[in-house]
Write a structure and sequence with these properties.
This protein is mostly helical. The chain is 71% helix and 1% strand. Strands 1-2 form a two-stranded antiparallel sheet.
Length: 318
Amino acid sequence: MEQKIITNRIDWMDWAKTIAITLVVFGHILMPFSKWIFGFHMPFFFMLSGFLQKKRTAHAEAVNSAKSLLLPYVIYNVYLLIYSLFTGEYASNYPLDMLLGMQWNLSMACRPLWFLLSLFIMRMVFAVLPQRGSYLLSVVCIIFVLLFHGAAPMKPEMNYFQVFEAVICFPFFIIGTLMRQYKVEQVLDRFPVALRYVIIASGLAVGFCFVGLNDTIIPFRLMLSNVPLFYLGATFISIGLIWFIYQTFQIRNSYIQLISEGTLLIFAVHQSILWPLREVLPNGPWGALFSTIVTILVLSGPICLARKYCSVLIGKMK
């Protein structure tokens, strides 16, 4: 029975990561409606990251995260800097800004890599602090963002090593660790199936109401019109999605597992695939959905190759 629980957890998490990365790609195409996705998709990803995070010593975490996050960050930035030469976006400041983690100053294709730096910071903080210290810091982060968002120092142009995004999203990472500790994904198992989905739908509806009441939500640009609405909306939607996926997708699928393992690669290079597609595919919601599917399908091949020959590209070291 214990083995079955572990297997199911892995299966639904593969679906969760696949859905999360699909939302990331889709949100970068469907710009008129991106607020509805930006309002929760990165908090959702950080919550999943926290759920999967293991407690390690600071040294062990530094070694592990340097290999799985920082090394891919450098590799993909080098690729994307070369890519920017062909698109005409390259500037002389790019190499230094890459080393300083100034994704804002790099080309659009490079910017999604902010996730790797922010996640590295979160993992290290979680490793260094005792458990209660991490909980307290997450509250401090919310207070800091509430007081200083929009202030002069807290601007994308000053965001070295993506520290501010780490501050904004660290509470979601901690919520993920708490969910795993207390098995929150299993809370609805005690209710009848129909009631479970009513609760999930209600939570998602409340979350999207909070998102709708917020004017601007772009964590990468440090743009949050209303901080409490951002945290409430993202939390309700992310937990609702986790409940929904856990209840619905207890199914093992080899392709979903492949995409789940390759989320880092998709994060890193999807913009370099999307920009050419935008020139040839139709606009609007259906065009955006089609572009998202094509992008993920195109990157399935590189993920397979990386899994077999160069696992560092998917954040793993053999």
